User: What shape does this take?
Amino acid sequence: MAVDRNSDSGEAVGDRRGRVWSPGTGGLLYGGDYNPEQWPEPVWAEDLELMREAGVSMVTAGIFSWAKAEPSPGRYEFGWFDRVMDGLAGAGVRVCLATMTASPPPWLSHAHPETLPVDAEGVRKSPGSRQHYCPSSPVYREHAARLVERLATRYADHPALAMWHIGNEYGCHTRQCFCEVSAAEFRRWLRERYGTVEELNTAWSTAFWSQAYGSFAQVLPPRAAPTFPNPAHQLDYLRFSDEALLGCYLTEKAVLDRVTPHVPVTTNVMPNHKPVNAFAWAAHQDVLSLDYYQDPHEPLPEVRAGYTFDLMRSAGGGRPWLLLEQAPGAVNWRPRNGPKAPGLMRLWSWQAVAQGADAVLFFQWRQSLGGAEKYHSAMVPHGGRDTRIFREVTELGRELASVPEIAGSRSAAEAALLLDWDSWRALELAARPSTLNQTELSLGHYRPLFEAGVACDVLPPDADLTGHRLLVAPNLYLLSERDAEHLTGYVTGGGHLLVSFFSGIVDPHDRVHPGGHPGVLRRLLGLRTEEFWPLAEDERVTLEGRVNGRADLWSEAVEPEGAEVLAVFGKDHPALAGRPAVTRHRVGAGTVWYLATRPEPRAMRALMDTVRAAAGVEPVLPGLPDGVQATRRERADGSGGFLFLLNHSGAAAEVALPEPMTDLLTPAPGGPLREVRLEPSGVAVLSRPGTARARDGAPDGGRRGA
Assistant: This one.
């Protein structure tokens, strides 16, 4: 039945075909975040004209439209949005329709101030910004669900509707709330998790500092305290807060599942965002979406982007993902907001596609004239059509539209980096031997693989590891006995594992594993760590042996218990001179390496090259010039694929090809190429015949449940 969109009481009935996200349908998606409520209606017609010119095929819409769609409680005004949706449909632009719940209107907090979040100091936040809601608030969820019901009913069968965009950047500003509503929900969560207060006391080690609870009613959120809060308490509150945010998402998703079961759903996660566990959230999305903003002033931004893109692809089980937001130029929220030099926006957009994205969208379509983000760049800048940014945007749209066959193709990797969200959270709490940053540590291990041109997944330690010849575990501080057994099975079965310092130390409750460090990894690594020895902020030490170079940040007093010593600390580390810094231990059919420090990038690259060679992990394309990235995507039917070459260096580069290939972006008049020249920031997308290289002989990974 069609929807009567002239009536707010019209009821839509979807076709109930079953919700499916079909990657590849219509080619690569291109567009931006469209906010027509910021502009008078005559501008909308120009928007559609410019979208056609720029090659826009999809926009997100409605993200911050709640106040205009429901200007007072229960009074809905959708007529203006009907005209927006109809116009987009007429222009052939698909819509990723937001549920409009990311920023509640002022009337909600005015009538219900208890919906506003409270920080750890007990200060209730005010409206006037965005994301001003307590994730646990039943009042907020009730009003949000009511709005989503009206939206879904009204637009269920609209021809422009392609998918739902639930919320927006969950946990961006309100990561945790410490109000009484949250406290009550936290106590309920703890009862479900532990059953009895005695179990809670054991898990939280409350015998320390006289913290034992007599009942769940005595438990509060970890609010501001005189000194260090209980780390197990903090860790559980981080878990709870993540689930509270997910609960908001699932409240809205339940409405959409009921009213529009045929429409896919997604939400835009933020990069390397500790409050939201992307692995857990992925199970509740039909396609994963990412907002990513490179910093032009950052050294090697392509490495951080590569790690993030691989994480998104891996969290989605290897399926294509969507880049829902990036900036065509400068952002507005860094201390210094550098623009993207000519060619960078194109290069970084193609990097996302090369690493699995099937959509390239921007925030936002038209640059705002007022508000907090008026200096954030947009596809249509303040200067309009006759600007460098719009010309580059239009050219990129043409390029993406010229290669629809890329959409739906996938990547495979024989190497994987391990990331555990709870370990990350626990590692960065206070009162540790040293301040450590999980993302920076992970990037230090990812960089040598990226620069070598090695395809890499990012997986949790309990993942199915089948087909991965090499695992890299950067500082896996929190590790359960079960996951340690899983990794042991992987190595015993023929896998190769590199583990870095301060790993295997505590259990899921942040309690130290008994029996000495590195706890549940001691037998697998064939060593024990007698003492942690963090280095001073500017201190550097020498590594001597089969790994040479300098190291910083951390060291340990290691005693081998079967492991072979590959490198030792030099004389410039008097306390540990001659003690092991890098070891290797053969276990079953596999091998595990251990780093008791952080080698400088050059030494880390040399070590990683040695480890991956032993594992039989080859780069996508051997002999790449410095600064050139090579990735592959394969067609699902095995009929061939695509080789992407991206020049992140500041100099031109020549890349030899292993076989004749056709450049899909700039076809050569003489036919297939055996060599490609890339100018600085240059991109080549090459068609590859045949099938992806088989991975015969890769370890079974100790697959669980097999």
Summary: The chain has three domains: 29-105+138-171+259-406, 415-615, 628-688. The longest helix spans residues 231-259. The CA atoms of residues 405 and 479 lie 42 Å apart.
